[in-house]
Amino acid sequence: MRLAAAALGVTLAAPAAAQRFDATSPVTGQPDNPGIGQDTGPNGLPTLKRTIPDGLSRDQNRGALGGDAAGGEQTGGDSLRSPLSPPAQTQIPGQPGVSQLSTRVTTGGRRTGGSSTAPANLAPSTLLRTRAAPPRRIGSATRRVTQDVTQIPPPALRLTPVVQQAVVGVPNPQVATPIRPILPFQSIAPALGLLTPGFILGTDLARAIPTDPAYAPIGYQVGTFTVLPTFAQSVGYDSNPDQTTRQIAKGSVALRTDATVDFRSNWSSSSLQGSLRGSYLETPQNEAASRPAADGVVRLRVDANRDLRIDAEGRFLVDTQRTSSANLQAATATTRPLLAVYGGSLGATETFNRLSVTLRGSVDRSEFDNARLADGTIVNQSDRNLNQYSLQLRTAYEINPDFSPFIDLLGDTRVYDRRFDATGVRRDSDGIAVAFGTSIGLARSVTGEISAGIQHRTYVDPSLRDINAPLLNAALVWAASPLTTVRLTAATGVTETTIPGSSGVLTEVATLEVQHDLLRNLSIVLGGSYLRNDYQSSSIRENGFSATARLDYHFTRWLTLRGTYIYQKFDSTVAGSSFRENTFLLGLRVNP
To answer: Has this prediction a pTM greater than 0.85?
Structure first.
């Protein structure tokens, strides 16, 4: 009993070491953060350690693994106690620093809490482990930015170009490329000699300039194509639907039906586009003057590679001849005979930096229907049927994007189905032409091309004289203002005739058209056409003039009210071939 009491007294008299609450690393088995964290307070609860004095390292202040007082570590103190901890108990007199928890000094000099007597027990009890500081990763501390930018200010628009994708189906008058012949001379020349003055001066000028995009048709998406159908019905009055002399002219109510289908591909490279148009003019009070008309063109462009482009084209035209035409030589014809012109072209363009070379070949076929006279006689016109084969070589050099001069060499041969015509003359011929011109794109205000040159034509029959004539072609569009557009087209060529003794006809035609938008949905078109036919080795001369006024009012994108007035005047030295005509039409156009 004396020995037990002495041992208890020694234990109580010894200085009490603070209990350690450092968390033990599961990897090394040592305290994760020795010398920092929490320790036992005077009240036996965990408290923060005091700060290490300045000028001392952490290793210098860390004594034994247990962190006793000899190592320089001091714990406890109400100033470091958690504000949520209960107030510290009064220490036992004469034994400062002794915790109220039962402690035990191990053989290693460490003081542990609880009733455990294990000599190397480094882990705190279950209760204190839950209160210990959470373990940290092994290694030196790192510093990284934890604040990320969540909002990016918009860039200045004046410094960044704005790129907008074009709306499919809505034509842009500033960038849309009109469908026009790649070779104006070769495409127009075969037709000019076959068309009647009534068609050239005819019921319509060139295709309408695109309207404001807000009222332009959108069309339908069919696969990779945009299709733009149009249907129009007009009613009015025609003072001379026969286009004959004033003495025998017979006016009639006019009913005109038009249908058009335009289409274009939406491919990333290459393209296929076309325009097909048909119309029928019905004159109930003069059935003999009722007539159809149609024309169309389809173009394919294949981008073989960066420098090689292949172009193909198919075209056709259907019209009727005037009964008083000088070429028909049948002033008493009761019906207007049909004529048809159709053909195709194939060409390739190779680009060498700024230099481009185009080689293109064309084949065109012309057919004429027989005419029926008042007495029932049939006038055979098969001797006018012919094929034309032509070849064009164009060399162009792009000085800048707005100016590309070129030189054209053109050659063609015309072969008739019948060796001799009705008068016993062979009309097969060969022609050659050279033209100099340029493509123009002046800041997109004036676009198109213009060329001039000379042409020579030689005939197989020695009785037909050769023809030398100037050559002029133009297709220009001038955007005078955002509301006004001016378009000019001109063409010349040597066309065919069956007049005895005449080798050919020097034909010149020009059209000027002005469109002005009074409102976004209201536009007016004023235009005029001029035609001149000079029969070589003959006294026949023909001059024609046509004026057109058209008003378009767009109710919606798909419905338009159109009013049209057309005046035609044609003077000829051939008796009974001159005429005057006034046409008034009012109708609706639908773009579904």
So the answer is: no
